[in-house]
Write a structure and sequence with these properties.
Blueprint: H1 3-10, E1 16-17, H2 23-33, E2 37-41, E3 47-52, H3 53-63, H4 72-75, E4 83-84, H5 89-99, E5 103-108, E6 111-117, H6 118-142
Parallel strand pairs: 1-2, 4-5
Antiparallel strand pairs: 2-3, 5-6
């Protein structure tokens, strides 16, 4: 199965911020949208970085409340692992596990076209397992 299957089911909307936004802005966005990460755009439809709940927590632990006034550009992860719609879901899952991150922007060339989370991957795997089990039950019942 490919990443495209996840995007087809969940949609392609991605919440983004600009590098000049503050961490307080990001915290509000994460809370309002009930998400764990936002992509930092480069102004041309591409990815400049990503900022996650984990990044915010680390900044708060080291800087205290002053971290909320920091710019996203100061704290974002700049080296973002991305995927493409035609990547295998298992390959993306392995990259996430190996890299210990939970969100992967999906690209088409240099353009951001979606986001896949570890939750999306797990949901897809569960649905696949349930479909396979149902097919096996049906096969056994007709044998």
């Amino acid at each position: 199965m490919r990443v495209e299957a996840i995007l087809a089911a969940k949609g392609r909307d991605v919440t983004t911020v600009e590098a000049a936004s503050t961490i307080a802005d990001v915290v509000r966005t994460l809370a309002e949208k009930s998400i764990g990460a936002v992509v930092v755009t480069d102004g041309h439809g591409g990815v400049a970085g990503i900022i996650t709940e984990r990044d915010v927590v680390r900044a708060l632990a080291s800087r205290g409340a002053e971290a909320l006034a920091a710019l996203v550009s100061e704290l974002m992860t700049r080296e973002v692992v991305t995927a493409h719609a035609d990547d295998k879901i298992d390959d993306v899952s392995e990259r996430m596990t190996r890299g210990k991150f939970r969100h992967v922007p999906v690209m088409a060339g240099d353009r951001l076209v979606g986001m896949v989370s570890i939750g999306d991957v797990v949901k897809h795997r569960i649905e696949s397992i349930e479909a396979e089990a149902s097919a096996m039950r049906d096969y056994i019942a007709t044998a």
